[in-house]
Amino acid sequence: MNSNEVALVTGGNKGIGHEIVRQLATRGFTVYLGARNPALGLAAAEELAGSDVRFVQLDVTDVASVQAAVEHIEADSGRLDVLINNAGIVSEWGTKVPDITAAQVRTAYDVNVFGVITTTQAGIPLLRQSPNARIVNMSSGLGSVNLLSDLDGRLNTQGLLAYSSSKAALNALTLLYAGALRPDGIKVNAATPGLVPTDLNTEATVDRGQRTPADGAVVPVLLATIPADGPTGVFRGPSALDEVALW
Ligand SMILES: NC(=O)c1ccc[n+]([C@@H]2O[C@H](COP(=O)([O-])OP(=O)(O)OC[C@H]3O[C@@H](n4cnc5c(N)ncnc54)[C@H](OP(=O)(O)O)[C@@H]3O)[C@@H](O)[C@H]2O)c1
Questions:
Q1: Which atom of ligand 1 has the smallest separation from the CA of 13?
Q2: Phi-psi region for residue 17, left (φ > 0), alpha (ψ -120 to 50) or beta?
Q3: Which atom of ligand 1 is the closest one to the Cα of 112?
Q4: Which residues, other chains included, contact 84 with Cβ-Cβ below 8 Å and sequence gap of 6+?
Q5: How far apart are CA 245 and CA 247, in angstroms?
Q6: What is the pLDDT of residues 21-50, one digit of tens each?
Q7: Is 109 part of the annotated catalytic residue set?
Q8: What string of DSSP letters covers 141-208?
Q9: What is the pTM of this model?
Q10: Could you give the angle at the alpha carbon of 213 between the alpha carbons of 209 and 214, nearest 5°?
Q11: Superfamily holding 6-236
């Protein structure tokens, strides 16, 4: 049990993020369920009534809301041990690679890349005070440059120019934060949940997978609960911590 420890999960109102909130709360964390829409966030926290789950308004594209959320956590709990950068979007469903615009790519990067940087930067001062700080970034096999290098493979031919490249960028910044924050004892790792049919991938033409949100939450929760001498700068999943995902 991780009693007294405090976690923040972005995009916690539904999908895999909501399951991460539930599983961390079950392990004894105080969990701040970050959601951009207050009505959805409050309702999602209400679903987990009985555990220590607290809604906090947070839109990762809105620097002021992220800063306010972290200030609220500091005032309310005085600590932050775990940050899960879970919020993510796909912005180009239905558009073929040559037709995807820079604006579509920018929309995805605003959440999947710049949103992660905004939230991480805001969280670092509190995380530095934790005896065992952990950041988990929700990545994807679609962000694996290794897997994308098979031009005929499923991941390349899916043609998600914005999403795949945003998750590749996320993988790179996971490693850069891991190196830079190692002297502070902050571990930074990436997880892939596998294919989970959620509101993220409603496109009928792609394989949406058959994993449940609970399945997808397993590895991010394991990375969120590693001990102080646990790994940093690793990419794991989708089912177990000893599975090594391809960068
Ligand atoms: N599902 C899969 O197969 C799969 C595979 C690999 C990786 N992933 C990754 O897993 C993570 C969770 O995805 P999911 O499948 O659970 O998707 P989901 O059900 O669509 O949930 C996405 C969450 O992100 C939130 N969000 C979007 N934009 C946001 C913003 N600007 N600020 C704050 N929150 C925002 C959404 O809030 P709203 O409800 O307000 O939109 C929602 O809570 C994502 O990073 C995704 O890339 C998923």
A1: 43
A2: alpha
A3: 45
A4: 7, 8, 9, 10, 17, 20, 135, 136, 138, 220, 224
A5: 6
A6: 999 999 999 999 999 999 999 999 999 999
A7: no
A8: GGG-HHHHTSTTSHHHHT--HHHHHHHHHHHHHHHHHHHHHGGGT-EEEEE------SGGG--TTS--
A9: 0.98
A10: 125
A11: NAD(P)-binding Rossmann-like Domain (3.40.50.720)
CA 105 to chain CA centroid, nearest Å: 19
Domain ranges of the chain: 6-236
State pLDDT tens for residues 121-170.
999 999 999 999 999 999 999 999 999 999 999 999 999 999 999 999 99
CA-nearest residue for atom 9, ligand 1, is 138
pLDDT at 55 over 80: yes
**Could you check whether the bond before residue 125 is cis, i.e. omega within 30 degrees of 0?**
no
Contact 41, 34 (CB under 8 A): yes
Mutation probe of ligand 1 site: the residue of 55, 89, 235 with most atoms within 8 A of C-beta? 89
Euclidean distance between CA atoms 181 and 13, whole angstroms: 29
State how far the Cα of 190 lies from the Cα of 238, in Å rounded to an integer: 11
Number of the ligand 1 atom closest to the C-alpha atom of 59: 32
Ligand 1 neighbours, Cβ below 6 Å, are 10-11, 13-17, 36-37, 40, 58-61, 86-89, 111, 115, 138, 140, 192-193, 195-196, 198-201, 209
